[in-house]
Design a protein that fits this description.
The complex is a heterodimer of chains A (about 160) and B (about 475). With about 160 residues, chain A is of the alpha+beta class. Helix content of chain A is about 30%, strand content about 25%. A 4-stranded mixed β-sheet of chain A has the order 3-4-5-6. In chain A, helix 2 packs across helix 3. In chain B, the strands form 3 sheets. Chain B has a 5-stranded antiparallel β-sheet with strand order 2-1-5-4-3, with helices on both faces. In chain B, strands 7-9-10-12-11 form a 5-stranded mixed β-sheet, with helices on one face. A two-stranded antiparallel ribbon of chain B has the order 6-8. In chain B, a hairpin with a 3-residue loop joins strand 11 and strand 12. The longest helix of chain B has about 50 residues. Classes of the chains: A alpha+beta (about 160), B alpha+beta (about 475).
Chain lengths: ~160, ~475
């Protein structure tokens, strides 16, 4: 019995270690949210992402955005839009997409509205591949062009780069 | 034959670690840790000093830019670009001006106005805080700062600036490299020093160990030579002193065994000779009675000798005996009464001059033995019509007992030996008087065991005087 005990313990540890943490997602979709905590400098961004299950709705943008507006599942992410914010309209305008949100979102500060819009734009980009997203809510509107969106300052002057 | 083959016996002891290795390793680890801490500390302090300076200058530049932007009546890319362009003194690597929503109004590194600038510093500034971040990377100082732009208490935008300083970065890098080189050189020197020191220390310890093995083998003449003036030198001296004492003790033991054997052999030989004579010769009853009487005398002498040897052994081994406060006078008088017949037979008159109050702390039997042996000797080695004076006086702290006889005295060269076991000044006379050569040795041992002192002075042909001193124990004073 004395010899079996360590073997059983080892087996238990192996089993615990090998057990998959959570069920693998069948059709994952990437949702972007602001991080709860972030550092300064050029090595950190204020936005991060999580994967969510979207079986059967991968191309259903209204459904995905409704799911998105419900908020993040991970603790290290925070929702910016108020909980009762809803998607009123999602419309493609050429290479751009227009998202009209309910007026609750307009209650956000200007900077936070832009940040929330950037997260939404990144999510749309991953879902349907669009590069420019216009978000409106009540009187507020912001256009996020992912080509010019600056999340990390990686600019290095030439004289420094040469060194 | 000395056992030199056991030199590495310590290596077989379980858990043995060379002190050389332990000392050297400890020294190296401690110094290495200190040098690493020194390097880290210097790096951190230098960087902090540079960052503090940078924070002050970059934040000030941000404030200047924020003040200029706040003066603008219209806030658009064109007006902001003109305002920033006028500020030649900024000299930042990158300047970004955003509106209150974090959208770019001016970016010195990019022409795309209206882009969302969601850097952590900008977001903090738009929340109303001044922000500074500094980092040192591969020889370059990188700093970023952001500050809000206020217009009548309302945040209308933010200023973000970055700066790269290669010159100061190189200074820090050079300083770090120099400190590192110095540390490595110092560590190498310390390593060498600790190695040499520990080798020297280890060699000295090994020297002591070798000497102790030689002494353990029985060579008490061996002397340990340790140079220097430290604890090991003192240890070496102590070992040498211990060896000297062992040598003395061994010498005494050998002599004692030899003397004891000799002393016991003599009466045994006499007994053997006398008994052989009785067995082998036809002798008359009178002669036989005389021979048997001699055998009895020798046996009695042997008995006395063994009794005294036992007494000495007992004195040597007994250290915790019960002591009591006794007055010396009554005990001395008792001994005197006991020896009065012997003194009368030897025609020696006994004179007592005793002070009454001489309390001392010792077993009464011990005092009895001391006085008895000294007085018995004084009677034995006296001359007919001689005298034996026993005097007891007290000074401030001691009781002084003197036993003075008017006998033949002790030759000057023998005075230093009379307390040795089995030593006799006149062997023939001693044996004839029944002496064993142990009486004075017993006296000296008892006196020393009771914190006393004994001395002797003698003039050949005139007499001998023994002086015994014991510390007084006055109850009133002591308690």
């Amino acid at each position: 019995m004395k010899k079996r005990a360590p073997a059983l313990l080892l087996l238990l540890l192996l089993l615990t270690g090998c057990t998959p943490r959570g069920t693998p997602l069948k059709e994952p979709v990437c949702f972007y949210y602001p991080k709860a905590e972030y550092d300064f400098g050029d090595s950190d961004s204020v936005i991060d992402y999580e994967f969510r299950e979207a079986s059967g709705h991968l191309n259903d943008l209204p459904f995905l955005l409704s799911l998105y507006l419900a908020g993040p599942a991970e603790d290290y992410l925070v929702p910016l839009y108020p909980a009762d914010t809803t998607l009123i309209r999602a419309e493609h305008q050429g290479s751009r997409i227009l998202l009209q949100l309910s007026s609750e979102a307009a209650g956000l500060g200007d900077a936070h509205f832009t940040l929330a819009g950037a997260c939404l734009a990144l999510t749309c980009s991953k879902a349907i591949g669009t590069e420019t997203v216009i978000i409106t809510s009540g009187p507020k509107a912001v256009t996020i062009d992912l080509n010019t969106l600056l999340l990390e300052d990686t600019f290095i002057p030439e004289e420094v780069g040469e060194n | 034959m000395l056992d030199i083959t056991s030199e590495s016996s310590e290596a077989r002891v379980y858990g043995y670690r060379s002190s050389q290795f332990v000392y050297a390793a400890t020294f190296v680890i401690v110094t290495l840790a200190a040098l690493v801490l020194l390097n880290v500390y210097i790096t951190i302090v230098c960087q902090r000093m540079v960052f503090e300076t940078k924070e002050q200058s970059l934040t000030e530049k941000c404030q200047i830019a924020a003040d200029e932007v706040a003066k603008l009546t219209v806030l658009n890319p064109s007006t902001v670009s003109s305002a920033v362009g006028r500020m030649e003194s900024l000299r930042a690597a990158r300047v970004i001006v955003t509106d209150q929503a974090g959208l770019s109004l001016y970016d010195s590194a990019s022409a795309s106005a209206g882009a969302a600038i969601l850097l952590p510093e900008v977001l903090q500034a738009l929340d109303g805080s001044d922000v500074f971040f500094g980092a040192y990377r591969s020889g370059t100082i990188f700093c970023s700062a952001a500050t809000p732009v206020f217009y009548y208490g309302t945040i209308i935008g933010s200023i973000y600036m970055t700066e790269y300083d290669s010159a100061q970065g190189r200074l820090i890098h050079n300083l770090q490299t120099k400190v590192l080189h110095f540390s490595l050189a110092a560590e190498a020197l310390l390593l060498l020093f600790s190695l040499l020191y520990s080798m020297g220390f280890s060699r000295r310890i090994e020297n002591i160990m070798s000497s102790m093995r030689i002494i353990q083998g029985g060579d008490y003449t061996h002397k340990l030579e340790i140079r220097g003036n430290d604890e090991l030198t003192l240890l070496g001296r102590e070992v040498n002193e211990l060896t000297d004492r062992l040598q003395d003790s061994e010498e005494l033991r050998r002599r004692f065994v030899s003397d004891a054997s000799h002393e016991i052999k003599t009466p045994l030989a006499s007994i053997k000779l006398l008994s052989d004579s009785i067995l082998q010769n036809d002798m008359d009853a009178e002669t036989m009675r005389e021979f048997v009487g001699d055998i009895g005398s020798e046996a009695e002498r042997l008995n006395r000798m063994t009794a005294k040897l036992l007494s000495l052994t007992k004195l040597d081994s007994e250290h915790d005996r019960e002591i009591e406060i006794i007055h010396m006078g009554p005990t001395i008088r008792r001994v005197c009464r006991m020896l009065q017949p012997t003194a009368g037979a030897a025609k020696v008159s006994l004179i007592l001059e005793l002070e009454n109050e001489c309390p001392i702390l010792m077993p009464e039997d011990d005092l009895y033995q001391i006085v008895f042996n000294l007085m018995e000797n004084g009677i034995k080695y006296n001359v007919p019509r001689g005298s034996l004076t026993v005097r007891l006086v007290r000074d401030t702290e001691n009781a002084v007992l003197t036993v003075t006889d008017t006998g033949m005295g002790i030759p000057e060269d023998a005075v230093g030996h009379i307390f040795e076991r089995f030593y006799r000044v006149d062997k023939a006379r001693s044996r004839s008087t029944g002496g064993t050569g142990l009486g004075l040795a017993i006296v000296q041992t008892i006196v020393r065991n009771n914190r006393g002192e004994i001395t002797v002075s003698s003039t050949p042909g005139k007499g001998t005087c023994f002086t015994v001193v014991f510390p007084l124990f006055d109850t009133e004073v002591q308690i």
